[in-house]
Amino acid sequence: MLLKHTTDEIKARKALTINPAKTCQPIGAMYASLGIHGCLPHSHGSQGCYAYHRSTLTRHYKEPVMAATSAFTEGASVFGGQANLLQALDNIFTVYNPDVVAVHTTCLSETIGDDIPQIFNKAIADGKVPEGKYVLHANTPSYVGSHITGFANMTKAMVDYFAVSNGHKEKTVNIIPGYVEPADMEEIKRLGDIMGIKTIMFPDTSKVLNGPMTGRFKMYPEGGVTIKELKLAGSSKGTIALGNLASGAAAKALDVKCKVPCQILDLPIGLQATDMFIDTLRQIAGVNVPDAVTFERGQMIDIITDMHQYFYGRRVGLVGDPDQILALAKFLVSIDMCPVYIVSGSPAGKKFVKRLEEITQEVPYEVKISVPGDMFLFHQWIKQESVDLIIGNTYAKYIARDEDIPLIRFGFPILDRVGHSYFPTVGYKGGIRLLEKILDAILDRIDRDSSDISFELVM
Amino acid sequence: MTGISILKERKKQIYQKGAEPFSITCGKHSLAGSVSQRACVFCGSRVVLYPIADALHLIHGPIGCAAYTWDIRGALSSGPELHRLSFSTDLQEKDVIFGGEKKLYHALIDLIHEYKPKAAFVYSTCIVGIIGDDVEAVCKKVSRETGVETLPVHSEGFKGTKKDGYKAACEALFKLVGQGSVDNISPYSINILGEFNIGGEAWIIKDYYKRMGVNVVSTMTGDGRVDDVRRSHGAMLNVVQCSGAMTYLADMMKEKYGIPYIRVSYFGLEDMSKALYDVAEYFSHNPEIMTCTQELVRYEISRIYPELQKIKTAVKGKRAAIYVGGAFKAFSLIKALKYIGINVILAGSQTGNDADYEVLRDMCDKGTIILDDANPLELSKYIIEKKADLFIGGVKERPIAYKMGIGFCDHNHERKTPLAGYSGMLNFAREVYLTVTSPVWQFAR
Q: Start and end of every Nitrogenase/oxidoreductase component domain (chain A) (predicted)?
């Protein structure tokens, strides 16, 4: 078998990551940048970084992913990347004509110490940034944090560069959706719409990375938050940040900069987290929850009760990004499933781990948590004592196959399936779909394993 | 989408046959700010060495470089699978400040102890080049202490282009060559260079040579084994498929061990047959080999000929755009497409050189666009202008083709069916046929 190299004996590793459960900052920044309307992400570093990020995002979303690169060579790494970035901005605005260029750094440009704001100033002074066009940047060395930190940094940069207070309190509510699929962003906006609330979502990759087929290649698809909206975000009534790790930084920055109060919630995965989101949104906007939303909620509860007999006591291995595994763990516990192994490659801090421990304290098994950890360790745990279900990204499929365990693909990246960017897993509707996926995986497995005698029409 | 402008600096990298006297600029660094489809030095090294399945591949750098190359290449192994795991020193900020040598040393010791690989490759990434870790010294120390040869691969991303990565990989491989015993190697023996076994191609090709009576000492690097590489200097001839990647190694082996080499392509009936005949020709002092080769070619072509003719009738006159990594691949694709009656309206490569583009010009029909180091806008511009029905490229090109409502064939590493050899040609023709004639495009137009 493929992972026959994985041993169940766990030895301490200090200097080595095997089969990572994370990737690096710039790709998160690139993803966030794509959530600005008319934005061309720009990678300030060697050509390989951006080629890998584009390939990985392309494989995940099955959409063209545009970005530019400073194309560093040895010269740039010795003399600094200023000349490259200036030339790049000039070329980009001349030929590709974006509204915005979002620059993120790489480990190379960070280490040689390029000062992006200074280079921006020079570019603006030299007339390389045309009137009415914008630039922004985030520092995203690959040796710090993970793709989640990169997403958070670029999202915060949107606040730092654009949000301003216009002196009034507008009726808008800001929503920072976290590192989720375009479909999730769409679903969160839909809930806001049903409640009659004007929301400003940033970043917003819906319609950018799950847009329609039109017979035309569009460099800048329809969706994305506009700069006008980002400016207005500084005057909104409040901000809801979903997922502390991916969205907290931007929300806090907006509070400090423009005095827009923020609430940092878990990702709205599952009933309670969605309730919390809806309730917070209701309070900030000062509206009542319409019947349509209550109806959807009722449907989700109905599904949960129909399904619950199959859930209780099932052992689940969870591997993924911190905000997601936290929300998922809470959801699973609430439907009586048992997340027993939880791994995130992204560093998320002691408080985060403590919260995971609290969430899982009632689970009647030993719960193992490793943040940051890698898939090799996750696999070793499973080898020691198996689980009924794995929830993780595509790379978890190796473990699922080797250990013959059903897998639900969740998170980033999902390279071997199509459709995840169209179907949400947040909100009540998304929750229903997630529940269906979990139940299907469990029942398919029972069908597959049952003998002829016990194989039944009704389960 | 008309009215797309082309970067001024890129004009010399685009040529339309028949329009003006031939001139194309290539081999230059991508322009800063262009949306190039190219990658870096590390990428070049990684793709070449990746298929060596019983070696340890440790990426010394931050996590991204390891994560993005974790088993994306799909090079199949008939035995060990060690190459499919992802090992990284996962450098953190403090390592960047204080140096990563200690971390590298401990990682190597742990891994070699655990997996007992035949050899270890250590890839240096951008950051390692900048902070100046002495990877060479660490590798030497580890080799000495463990007895497992540990080879540094100098693949700092910024130190050139993907081609320089190929060179770094060849240099690492060359250190292995010459270490093994050459006993019992047949006088009719070859090495296959630059075949990566992405869909099992190396197995098809090896089978052909075996049926000809030619012994394959090593395949570098598809389904590769360290010990085979070690004794590859015992072969009589090197047969180079991916010339961009492996000619450098072939040259070094020629110089040091006197092994001549030929360039071949295993794609398309014409090139595949030539690849076999050229080898038979080389061993012409044994006429039996030529006889076997003729029989093989006749047999294999007759097997696929009828279906190819049917496909030809169905796809004749369709128009294809090609954008691939190496120019050699483009040559073969043009021939193969012409064979089934498809016109090539655009041919481009990421890494072609002057000589390559001259060949391309000679092969293409009047009006064909030839592109060096293109970007999505240019590609989409010409696909529309030239009314392509089919795009052949790699991962980043697929959704562009689909967005425009035309068929696509992956000729990089996102496929599972082999496209080399005679059966591969049939696979390719079937794929072209299926995608071009798919009923889904009726919804797109």
A: 24-442
